[in-house]
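lol ok so funny story. i was supposed to be doing the assay writeup but got distracted and ended up predicting the structure for this chain instead. priorities right. anyway since i did it might as well share w the group, maybe its usefull for someone
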Amino acid sequence: MRAVAAGLTDVGRERKHNEDRFILLPQFGVFAVADGMGGHQSGEVASRMAAQSVAGYFRTSGSIRSVRDALLSALSDANSKIFARADDSRAHRGMGTTVVAAAFSSADAILYIAHAGDSRCYRVRDAQMEQLTRDHSLLQDALLERPDLTESDLAYLPRNVITRALGIGPSVELDVRAEPAKVGDCFLLCSDGLHGLVPDDEMVRIVLKSRTLTEACQALIRKANANGGKDNITAVLIRIEDEDAPWAPAAPSSSRE
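and the output, tada:
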């Protein structure tokens, strides 16, 4: 089996700058979405550094024994670089970026998924979509500790406070999972500019009806903009195929950094 992918990003309707970045490295089976945070365009710097650092790690690491360990090392390395830049530069102080990254191991047919923040990974299988990541936000952390909280209780909590991200500390705690993959599985990595505006049932409908991965990414972004486009919007779709299957017509083979 192998992983093919396509990705697109859009500034949305209300922002002046796009602080989202994504990478597609199908030759390594590595894909990621980063959503920058910080004033004065610092978020754009953080997400760009994350994308460049992760891509550079896999391009220069040579033979990789453990896909999982390599993914975590690449993200930890990115965290260190972003934190060092923020610590050294007054203009970039406090910057950071959410990240969701996936690395496919064809040897054991497993997609390793690591993330920090509220960028998400979903899996579409048998016409059903499942969210595979948990948002690292004040709201979701409260629900994890107190699942009995009511909507009125949650109304007092700010909904946009992120509790984990790359670059906001000298080290980062990453959630990682190993997801067994099957031929035909489609995984969606996206920023909150997409999942915050397009309901899950609408996202899966778009993915299922689209002819190509790129067409699906375009339709997802159009829908988020139609629903307000309040934030930058990024979608990366990864499809698991038979090794002998032809490449998807519109699946890029290079990275967007």
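Residues 2-241 form a domain with the Phosphatase 2c; domain 1 fold (CATH 3.60.40.10). The chain has one domain: 2-241.
back to the writeup now i swear
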